[in-house]
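Lay summary. Proteins are chains of building blocks that fold into shapes, and those shapes determine what they do. In this project we predict the shape from the chain. Here is one chain we studied, written as its sequence of building blocks.
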Amino acid sequence: MKYRRLGRTGLYVSEICLGAMTFAGQEGSMWRAIGSVDQAGVDAMIGRALEAGVNFIDTADVYSSGESERMVGQALKNLGVKRSDVVIATKVYGEMGKGPNDRGASRGHIMDGVKASLDRLGLDHIDLYQIHGNDSITPVEETLRALDDLVREGLVRYVGCSNWAAWKMMKAHGIADHRGYARFETVQAYYSIAGRDLERDIVPMMQDQQMGLMVWSPLAGGLLSGKFGRDEDGPEGARRASFDFPPVNRDRAWDCIDAMRKVADARAVSVARIALAYVLSKPFVTSVIIGAKTNEQLDDNLAAAEIALTVDEIAALDEASKLPPEYPGWMLERQGAHRVPQPFKPKG
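And here is the predicted shape, written in a compact code that computers can read:
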């Protein structure tokens, strides 16, 4: 397992992050379809991940209405995990009650949320606390001030956001820098070989601001697992659903799978491993979040960290998955062709 620096911080996290969205999954809820791993299964998965070198676990208060956090905390206790050996990330924003203030990124919801998350996790601090979505109502200043207070109180070590637009993250950085608040060190976002939209605006912003990237759904909701073909349903019990989330251009996705299958067959590994290895090959990626329903899935995903794609393999996959031209990107590229930094050569 390799470890990468988390944004500008001095913290190092494993390039594979264990996602906890498949934990619990109450009957009758949307989470049931995503996963319903019980406590014994959670203990086993976290134990396996730790043995493989994973030190990074991501959950959220909204996952199964808090049960995911509770099960993560119980597993750490059951396994006797030393607190400093794991980096625990969770999120706040989603609906946690029926009241009008039981959601969002307001100071009130954040302050209530962090206390509830700490209680469920059984911890005295959260390593990375993330705003789970874009709140178009709450001023960014209010959100940042609340997060900064949590950092100053020692309840939270670092803060991040998820599913924000590039412009809003830059606005947040400007406010944080001007007022001396804790800044967003990470962004958690969707990225996959079949969904490279992030590269248009968010990646350049992240690189400029030295933010870490945590990738969710690197297999595009299971579509890129290699279990399915253009006209195939896949094995019984496999999660095909309708593949409406995350939204993916199907034709491009199948082309990507065809290209990955060639690489996978040559290496005698699963297509899923190649899909994960491709995302990990990108220098702007800090950690890839994997979620599993079984230990077999977990082991296969963990093995992606052992694959180092060649330059030719990456080039072939890049070509199969390249984004269509979009303004202003194509104009910036054309006009900037002669403004690429070159070494200065004095005359004479």
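What the prediction tells us: The chain has one domain: 3-335.
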